[in-house]
Amino acid sequence: MYTEKGRQKRFGKLKQDIPLYILALPGVLALLVFSYFPMTGIVLVFKDYNFKGGIFGSPWADPIYKNFVFFFNNISTAMRSTGLTIMYNLLFFIVGTFFAVAVAIMLSEISGKMFIKFSQSLMFLPYFISWMVTGAILYALLNVDSGLLNQLLISFGKEPIDFYAQPKKWIAILTIVNTWQSCGYNSIIYYGVLTGIDSSLFEAARVDGATKLQCIRKITLPLLKPTIIILFLLSVGNMLKGNLNMVIGLTNLNPVLFPTTDLIDVFVYRSGVKNGEMAFASAIALYQSIFGFLLVMTANKIAGKFDKDTTLF
């Protein structure tokens, strides 16, 4: 009797939730088609790929790890690309988060709603500008012959700087441009968190004589910390993935700049994809995914030791 009653209860619950399942169906199908079904192509990593045989008709690689050898054959280049990719992703997150949080806090202190909407729209605009257009703008600024920045240096009696021949300067340039492009988008996330903070906390602090700076340090930043940690954990998974479009758009794959711009994705593109070595490119993508997964697990465990509420799982 109990089993029959429980079965009827479960069936009734299932019948009641049918509209929810139908609502979730398009998202589940999209996830399967675009995320899980393509995983079958991982077999390409262990194949000696040719266009005639395709992914599943090509012979197996001999040795089976052949496609990984190309990347690690020159260990110094492999380590340079890996180190640069991690360095840039850390710089992008740290600098980008600092400015995004600062912008969000400044917007939260402004009372004029029209000004806030106008400012957000203006700051959000760079997010929609393609890297090719951004690269053309950057070239107009940094070109040694007619760039705006070099023209200003000449007008002050200084020597022009050939930015496209000095790799070390591009660490700062790429960081600045990436922050400019993403700051508006990221600030909206933090601004949304700030609008949900109970205003009575700030009112009580002001009654106690706290200044605006003290309110930011003691109330705003601590309440933003969980969001910052979660966004960092989400970004850790892509720590070994470089922005190929950004590097192509801004540097046009200038070989002189490779000492500081040869990210893993750039190396794969110029060494594998351009030569039709699809299996090699897939092998490096698998390398990035596996280490990205390990980094997420490690970072999540470390975050859990400090605050269990900030972990992803």
In short:
The chain is an all-alpha fold. It has 15 helices and no strands.
Give an overview in words.
- The protein has 313 residues and is mostly helical.
- It folds into two domains: 1-44, no CATH class; 47-310, MetI-like fold.
- Helices cover 71% and strands 0% of the residues.
- The protein has 15 helices and no strands.
- The protein has helices at 2-16, 18-36, 54-57, 66-72, 75-108, 113-124, 131-142, 148-155, 169-195, 199-207, 212-236, 244-251, 258-261, 264-271, 278-306.
- It starts with a helix and ends in a 7-residue tail after the last helix.
Query: What amount of the residues lies in strands?
Result: under 5%
Q: What helical percentage do the residues reach? A: over 70%
Number of helices in the DSSP assignment: 15
Ranges with pLDDT <50 over ≥5 residues?
none
Report the radius of gyration as a whole number of Å: 25 Å
Which CATH class of the largest domain applies here? Mainly Alpha
CATH topology group of the largest domain: MetI-like fold
> In total, how many domains does the architecture comprise?
2
The residue-averaged pLDDT reads 85
**CATH architect. name of the largest domain:** Orthogonal Bundle
Q: What is the CA–CA distance across the termini? A: 39 Å
Strand/helix succession: HHHHHHHHHHHHHHH
SS content category: mainly alpha
- Please give the number of β-strands: 0
Taking the sheet with the most strands, its summary is: none
Shape: flat
Q: What name goes with the CATH superfamily of the largest domain?
A: MetI-like
